[in-house]
Design goal:
The complex is a heterodimer.
Chain A lengths: L2 E12 L36 E2 H13 L11 E4 L9 E4 L6 E10 L2 E14 L3 E5 L10 E5 L6 E7 L6 H18 L11 E11 L9 E3 L5 H20 L8 E5 L4 E4 L12 E2 L10 H9 L5 H12 L3 H7 L3 H11 L5 H19 L10 H12 L5 H14 L3 H8 L7 H14 L1 H8 L5 H13 L5 H13 L1
Parallel strand pairs in A: 11-12
Antiparallel strand pairs in A: 1-9, 1-10, 3-4, 3-14, 5-6, 6-9, 7-8, 10-11, 12-13
Helix pairs in contact in A: 2-3, 5-6, 7-8, 7-9, 9-10, 12-14, 12-15, 13-14, 14-15
Chain B lengths: L4 H10 L6 H19 L22 E2 L9 H5 L5 E2 L2 E5 L8
Antiparallel strand pairs in B: 2-3
Helix pairs in contact in B: 1-2
Classes of the chains: A alpha+beta, B alpha+beta.
């Protein structure tokens, strides 16, 4: 039987505000344990929360970018459970009146446009951090744990999709698109390694074409794109195997171990699902007036789709280039920064999509860690366009810049890579090459024009790629004709 | 009684309370009394009254996003019964796997 996976994602985003959600402690990753906390985020008796205005503005920005509806009123709830990283015994979250509902985000998968519904976007606070003492660093084998409250109370936005994703690859593409969008919105650094972007997935399978949902399991902490895709694939495989052998999927939370590729049930004691939500009496409701929503809309940064349209209109770039260049904010910003040094958008676009992305992919480097700055690339492109170095040598120089971070001028000077455009110098080389290959010269004279390429290649070899191709061709034609 | 022994046991478990058998009866009675008291409200005509989550007419109380000095770590940890490496040390969260 053919099975169809049904996937819904729950994404948690730590906002990059200066202070925490309900108190003025600095909200920042890391730091010496327990140096960024106070009575509010450590839940001392009588301490009262006050909501961070900027966090609510960021929340509104995210909601609008996800095409959500923002009801005029939403409230905070207390989600009650006991866990050492939750000092109050409850998390301030939102429940039946979330900040935003009914949005959508489109992705392109298999050349098809898929709209993924957003069920809700709400505000909550992050927990403290447990450090489990024990061999594995995992909770199961720990003898005791250490608690660091620096993260406690960091503004956290939860985004819940509808179960409208049908493959692990599409889930990865969705998460990637969402991450890029959040970076454009400038609301989070989305650093998955540091946990500022985290993803849980609900997954079930059903006979293809069936209208009802199967029993789902929850995959926790899929904290990289690879993790998410592989974890989902494994869990889907496991569920299909259970069903094919006549078994039943049990609703539970499962853990995916990336190293072993195993999916194992999490121990039930880790999660008690009776949260006894009730309205948070210490925080008044949020009333998003239409003027507030209008102001957030007006201040919205340029989003990737708009940017792509601008690139097509202003720079006359093909749709494909515009889409690739805007696929991440870093790349798009890099593109625009390079234009300030070398103002030919076509050439810059081609270099970024060909050389730069090629290098990043091949070396597994992130753009942020790339040693070539927009100014450095601009400098190289200027030298190519002025004819100081050939395009082919330029590509070599670029690779060296990637490795050493040196400036193009210095590399050219140090390695003597300046392009040879002097006709007399090239004529001398051409004469030598023609004399050494009389058979080919004869073929050319007999009308086989293609042989010219062979001679150009020989001259490039002689000069280490430094010969100016236009001048070389002209000189060769002269010499071969004579 | 409105609240059964099972419900008292369940609530106690959620609240991490250990009850003696005699206490089941006592708390079932007390909790039922509270529910009875609250149920009085249902005797009123409430069809036109909206659900209330907050009694004061106030919304959008915010603070500006400005970081201020946190308390010192020494003070932060002062009430911790056990402290290690600048952090609160808490007992094993999950009991050892049953054999």
């Amino acid at each position: 039987m053919e099975f169809e996976p049904v996937i819904g994602l729950e994404i948690h985003v730590e906002l990059s505000t200066e202070s925490k959600m309900f108190c003025g402690c600095r909200a920042e990753f890391g730091g010496e344990p327990n140096t960024r906390c106070c009575p509010v985020c450590m839940a001392h008796p009588g301490a009262l929360p006050v909501a961070n205005k900027k966090a609510i503005e960021y929340l509104a920005r995210i909601s609008l970018a996800l095409n959500c509806n923002i009801p005029g009123r939403s409230i905070f709830h207390r989600k009650n459970y006991f866990y050492p990283d939750l000092p109050k015994g409850y998390q301030i979250s939102q429940y039946d009146q979330p900040f935003a509902v009914n949005g959508q985000l489109g992705i392109i998968f298999d050349d098809e446009h898929i709209s993924v519904g957003i069920e809700r976007v709400h505000m909550e606070e992050d927990t403290a951090k447990n450090i489990h003492a024990g061999k594995s660093g995992r909770i199961a084998g720990a003898l005791y744990s250490l608690i660091d409250f620096n993260r406690s109370g960091t503004p956290l936005v939860e985004i819940v999709t509808r179960p409208e994703i049908h493959s692990p690859q599409a889930a990865r593409i969705f998460l990637n698109k969402l991450k890029n969008l959040l970076k454009y919105l400038d609301v989070s650094d989305c650093n998955m390694e540091e946990g500022s972007l985290r993803c849980d997935a609900n997954v079930s399978v059903r006979p293809a074409g069936s209208g009802t949902l199967g029993v789902k399991t929850e995959l926790k902490n899929m904290n990289s794109f690879k993790h998410l895709e592989k974890g989902l694939a494994k869990e889907i495989e496991r569920q299909v195997a259970v069903l094919e052998f006549g078994g039943q999927v049990v609703q539970q939370t499962v853990h995916f171990d990336f190293a072993s590729g195993e999916v194992t049930p999490m121990r039930s004691k880790e999660f008690a699902h009776d949260y006894r939500y009730f309205p948070e009496p210490d925080l008044v409701p949020l009333a998003a007036s239409s003027s507030f929503v209008q102001k957030i809309t007006a201040d919205m940064p340029e989003l990737p789709d708009e940017r792509a349209k601008r690139y097509m209109a202003d720079f006359n770039l093909p749709a494909y280039n515009a889409e690739v260049l805007t696929s991440s904010r870093e790349l798009s910003d890099y593109f625009e920064a390079t234009l300030a040094y070398f103002n030919d958008s076509r050439i810059v676009s081609n270099w970024l999509m060909g050389e730069l992305l090629g290098y990043l992919n091949a070396s597994g480097t992130e753009l942020a860690g790339c040693l070539v700055t927009p100014a450095g690339l601009g400098g190289l492109l200027k030298m190519i366009s002025s004819g100081e170095v050939s395009n082919a040598v330029g590509k070599e120089i670029f690779m060296e810049m990637c490795k050493t971070g040196g400036a193009a001028e210095n590399i050219v000077a140090a390695r003597g890579l300046t392009q040879i455009s002097d006709a007399a110098e090239l004529a001398a080389i051409a004469e030598r090459v023609i004399a050494a290959n009389p058979a080919q010269a004869e073929q050319f004279r007999a009308g086989k024009d293609k042989v010219l390429g062979f001679f150009v290649g020989q001259i490039m070899k002689e000069t280490g790629g430094r010969a100016n191709p236009q001048v070389t061709s002209r000189v060769l034609r002269d010499k071969l004709a004579g | 009684m409105l609240i059964s022994h099972d419900e008292v046991r369940y609530v106690a478990k959620l609240a991490r309370l250990k009850l003696e058998s005699g206490e089941l009866d006592r708390y079932a009675g007390q909790l039922s009394g509270i529910i009875n008291h609250i149920n009085k409200i249902s005797e009123l005509e409430l069809k036109h009254v909206e659900l209330t989550s907050h009694v004061i007419e106030l919304a959008n109380v915010f603070r500006e996003d400005q970081a201020r000095q946190s308390v010192s770590r020494e003070l932060a940890l002062a009430n911790g019964p056990e402290v290690e490496a600048g952090a609160f040390r808490v007992p094993q969260i999950l009991e050892a796997e049953e054999q």
